[in-house]
């Protein structure tokens, strides 16, 4: 029986779900999750330390990469408490207000990542299409204003979510579908009209993922047009190489989002395990692979890592 608090129709706690039917194997399942978290933490912290220590890397491209790494760390820390509590300690209950807080931060960092990727595409657009004005356009104060705008816009977009959930009576149970709290998952347990939640949720997705992805595509259309007008094949290759890491980061972020949307609409008969794995991919893959991609594809980051290992060997 659910435990409701006295002042509202909200459960005192929500029960999170790991992999249904695999509760006995949770300790083993926790091992890859721990590896994922350690990899994400170490990778993103390494990128931040390398850029911080090398003043020559205090340039727009690397400052935006710092924003991405900080955001990926935030995303990992947002999911870590509940995921590890389920798989390591078999503790599935989370307080109602704590669930709201986790929902806020997960959606905040997700929306912020989309906007940071848009800012990074603008950086590549200016670098390739307006190289002579690059330093004049992307000054440090302007980059700081872009970062502040990302925080303000993401906060204002996510801010209504907890209040939209809190106004709803939750009476269809207290079991969520994932190992963390999400707005759609909490909303489905309400026994009242959720039209406002649905409309605002779609609006938030459109103004964030929808518009950001359109502007990213438009920027790369212009970038490719400019690159293919360059006469030298070597210069074309160099210009495209500077975009390779960002393109991979965009695909890592948007492909799982698109896949989840398709699954929700056309794959309702797919096994539940597939839906769960896609959800984990959406939240866990970018923080793990982004620093690896930038370490492999960016010469300066590779050199910084080589210097770190050289000192350790000495």
TrEMBL record:
Gene Ontology BP terms: cellular response to lipid
UniProt keyword list: Cell membrane, G-protein coupled receptor, Membrane, Olfaction, Receptor, Sensory transduction, Transducer, Transmembrane, Transmembrane helix
SUPFAM superfamilies: Family A G protein-coupled receptor-like
Membrane-spanning intervals of the chain: 29-53, 62-84, 104-122, 143-165, 199-221, 242-264, 276-296
Molecular function as annotated in GO: G protein-coupled receptor activity; olfactory receptor activity
Membrane topology: Multi-pass membrane protein
Domain of life: Eukaryota
Keyword Kinase: no
Compartment(s) where it occurs, according to its Swiss-Prot or TrEMBL record: Cell membrane; Membrane
PANTHER family: OLFACTORY RECEPTOR 51I1, OLFACTORY RECEPTOR 56B1-RELATED
Species of origin: Chelydra serpentina (Snapping turtle)
Family indicated by similarity: Belongs to the G-protein coupled receptor 1 family.
Organism lineage: Eukaryota, Metazoa, Chordata, Craniata, Vertebrata
Main localisation: membrane
Keyword Repeat part of the UniProt annotation: no
The protein, known as: Olfactory receptor
GO cellular component: plasma membrane
Domain G-protein coupled receptors family 1 profile: 43-294
